[in-house]
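Quick one, tokens below. Sequence please?
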């Protein structure tokens, strides 16, 4: 049996004793250590459209369908998006690369806590974690770069218009990424996608520049920032989907959170059929309500968490019942808590309170599956 003490300690991963955000309560990139870009001074101009700096890969722009029509409400509506070509770090930002930025005085140290890599031995080539959004922005800015937008991140992870469920394709994650693992993995431990990008799925969730808000709009400002891609600490494939949106306040951090950087390409045009918006930053497609709307890629994965949109009716009261279907899973993965219960109704925060000393085995729309001592 794989050591799973780390998974038992997941509630300690985030700041202020907060668990890694799963469903949001109703209230409220990387360069390799050897990459010269990791210690470069801020760029004075974007590189030409034909090249990317060492440690980065070109993501050729185009059009793609973003979101999922039969997934979570927050992933709908499914909408077509234009993304111009850009550069993206081949790997998540490493401990060594971030430490170099700290020595320069441009970056503050990561937080310290269980499973944070900054003080761990032999983790220089693992992703830096325990980083908040502001720290990620500062690191990228020092390199003359920025965080990728949510649109850019999903476009890269789906390999453009291919509509991949995961970065490698549609096969389940076992053996293809760093997930359901006792800690992070060395960057690049798994095969790259066709653009040469690694760890877009798994290892650590990756901050984006985008604020969380309803589709189809692109949100640039707001206190809650989107992160994408799943992490080592997740145990079910549904958390690894390219379309899954997770988020946290910009000042929050955890062992599950890291990032990679992006860079604009000088002279990169908007894809055919789109035009720059008023800011010149994004590309817009003309509104066409009669345009063909292809179905979302089929997959068996259930939604991971409730929508943040208000419900048309009050949620049902919280209830707790025995769920022996998962006793064996609790025994295997949550030592000392072999008895499964199902907590339903209310908000996520309500269910968190109702579970008491039990720990989450899984969460979903309107439910927590928990493991208890008795």
């Amino acid at each position: 049996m794989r050591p799973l003490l780390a998974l038992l300690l997941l509630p300690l991963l985030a700041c202020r004793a907060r668990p890694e955000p799963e469903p949001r309560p109703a209230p409220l990139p990387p360069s390799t250590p050897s990459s010269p870009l990791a210690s470069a001074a801020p760029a004075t101009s974007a590189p030409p459209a034909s090249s990317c700096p060492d440690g980065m890969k070109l993501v050729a722009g185009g059009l793609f369908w973003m979101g999922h029509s039969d997934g979570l409400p927050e992933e709908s509506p499914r909408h077509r998006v234009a993304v111009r070509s850009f550069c993206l770090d081949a790997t998540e930002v490493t401990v060594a690369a971030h430490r170099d930025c700290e020595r320069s005085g441009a970056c503050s140290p990561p937080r310290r806590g269980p499973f944070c890599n900054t003080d761990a031995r032999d983790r220089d080539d693992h992703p830096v974690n325990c980083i908040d959004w502001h720290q990620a922005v500062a690191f990228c800015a020092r390199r003359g770069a920025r965080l990728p937008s949510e649109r850019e991140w999903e476009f890269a992870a789906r390999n453009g218009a291919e509509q991949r469920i995961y970065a490698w394709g549609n096969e389940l994650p076992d053996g293809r990424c760093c997930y359901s693992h006792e800690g992070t993995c060395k960057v690049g431990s798994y095969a790259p996608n066709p653009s040469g990008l690694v760890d877009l799925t798994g290892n650590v969730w990756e901050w984006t520049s985008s604020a969380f808000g309803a589709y189809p709009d692109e949100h640039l400002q707001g206190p809650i920032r989107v992160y994408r891609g799943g992490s080592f600490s997740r145990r079910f494939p549904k958390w690894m989907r390219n379309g899954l949106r997770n988020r946290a306040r910009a000042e929050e951090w955890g062992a599950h959170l890291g990032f990679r950087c992006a860079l604009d390409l000088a002279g990169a045009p908007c894809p055919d059929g789109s035009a720059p918006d008023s800011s010149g930053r994004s590309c817009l497609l003309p509104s066409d309500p009669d345009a063909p709307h292809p179905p979302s890629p089929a997959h068996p994965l259930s939604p991971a968490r409730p929508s943040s949109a208000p419900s048309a009716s009050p949620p049902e009261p919280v209830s707790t019942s025995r769920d022996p279907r998962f006793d064996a899973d609790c025994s295997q993965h949550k030592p000392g808590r072999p008895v499964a219960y199902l907590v339903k109704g209310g908000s996520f925060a309500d269910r968190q309170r109702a579970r008491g000393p039990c720990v989450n085995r899984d969460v979903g729309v309107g439910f927590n599956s928990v493991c208890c001592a008795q």
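The CA atoms of residues 59 and 86 lie 5 Å apart. The radius of gyration is 20 Å.
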